Amino acid sequence: MPQDSPTPSARQTELLEAAYQYALAHGLTDLSLRPLAEAIGSSPRVLLFLFGSKDGLLQALLERARDDELALLARARQPEHPAGLVPAVERVWAWLAAKEHRPLLRLWAEAYARSLVQPDGAWAGFARATVENWLSVLADCQPPSERDSEDGAARRTLALAVLRGALFDLLATDDEKRLTEAVEHQLSLLRD
């Protein structure tokens, strides 16, 4: 949401959710206000009024996608009773590999890539924040003695790299079986 409107109106919330569903189906790459507004029962002028600009709307959509991502991460996070890195990665991969999450993950991948090639504007900091969020969750899944060691940091960084790489390949190929086997193979190495 735009910085100057901390509490969104019911209409702004309704339109953001509708725009988010549209973005899940159509992506953000060539997002144009006119077709979006028509699809969600609004007008470009109303969207500009409520979100301040197209970048403001994009930022709100990225925040909405981030909310879904953070909800996943919250379910994986267990700092009081760390399950261990391997079980955490198994749970995260099972969620990432589920077909029903592909629209959200395609949107995430698009935003991640855009923040790398267009580091200013609506995309600013998205990729870096994503990496930091995921590393934090994986750290919370490690026992404190591992979490606080250099080896623990390297292990969670490797786990994140495997998850992210497998996710990108999954989105490109839909070859869930091959990628699940690859993730499981890497996890067997992390257990050792």
From TrEMBL:
Domain HTH tetR-type: 9-69
DNA-binding region in chain numbering: 32-51
Record keywords: DNA-binding, Transcription, Transcription regulation
InterPro entries: Homeodomain-like_sf, HTH-type_TetR-like_transc_reg, HTH_TetR
Keyword Metal-binding attached: no
Pfam families hit by this protein: TetR_N (PF00440)
Protein name, as recorded: TetR family transcriptional regulator
Species this protein is from: Streptomyces gibsoniae
